[in-house]
Amino acid sequence: MVVLPVVDEEQLVRAVARGDRAAFEDLYRRTAPWLTVRLRRRCSDDQVVAEVVQETYLAVWRAAGSFAGSAVDGTAVGWLWAIAARRLVDAFRRRARQERPLPPAEPVPAAEDEVLAGTFDDAVGGALRDLAPDLRQVLQAMVLDGLTVRETAVLLGVPEGTVKTRARRARIALREALS
Q1: Per-residue pLDDT tens digits for 24-70
Q2: Which of 128, 123, 124, 154 is nearest to 141 (CA)?
């Protein structure tokens, strides 16, 4: 019986950087379903999601050599999500220029919200769960996804000033809930 070494996503990205097509295919098989689900939480247009997934993996193939970890969490999956989130923002911008707004995503309880709330102690998790959905969305985009104010504004379809206000309100609400 041959025991193959366990290869994680970071090793796959490094192999992709060396031009390894099999590693690219393995990375795609492992991460594309997760990435698609996560993108669908942000956009209900399946065509846009499919385009963003395709653009993301094309960018991964081209830029794998520049992988140095994610700015958000240092992982290859975090790096992949950062690329996808920015591609989704680009898709929103293209649609805005074409004046065809994207249909809003249906609000669905997110696994990320559950994990985030469960990661912290009861007080922090409860405070996060008690935040208004619009405040939680801003925190998720800016903190978890590592997007800028401008990117968050495009992603959520609100002005930059609204993003800043919601981020401030979320911080105040969390501070009050935890004091």
Answers
A1: 999 999 999 999 998 998 888 899 999 999 999 999 999 888 887 65
A2: 154
Structure tokens at 15: 């192999």
Residue of 84, 63, 60 lying closest to 147 (CA atoms): 84
Question: Which residues form the domain of 154?
Answer: 109-179
CATH number at residue 140: 1.10.10.10
Give the Å distances, CA to CA, from 134 to 45, 47, 118, 166.
20, 25, 20, 7
Distance, CA of 58 to CA of 69 (rounded, Å) = 18
- Listed residues 80, 105, 130: the one ending a domain: 105
3-state secondary structure string across 67-96: CCCCCCCCCHHHHHHHHHHHHHHHHHHHHH
Q: What pTM, to 2 d.p., does this model score? A: 0.60
Look-up of token digits 């997760």? 34
- By C-alpha distance, which of 43, 170, 37 is closest to 110? 37
Structural contact between residues 41 and 109, judged by C-beta atoms closer than 8 angstroms: no
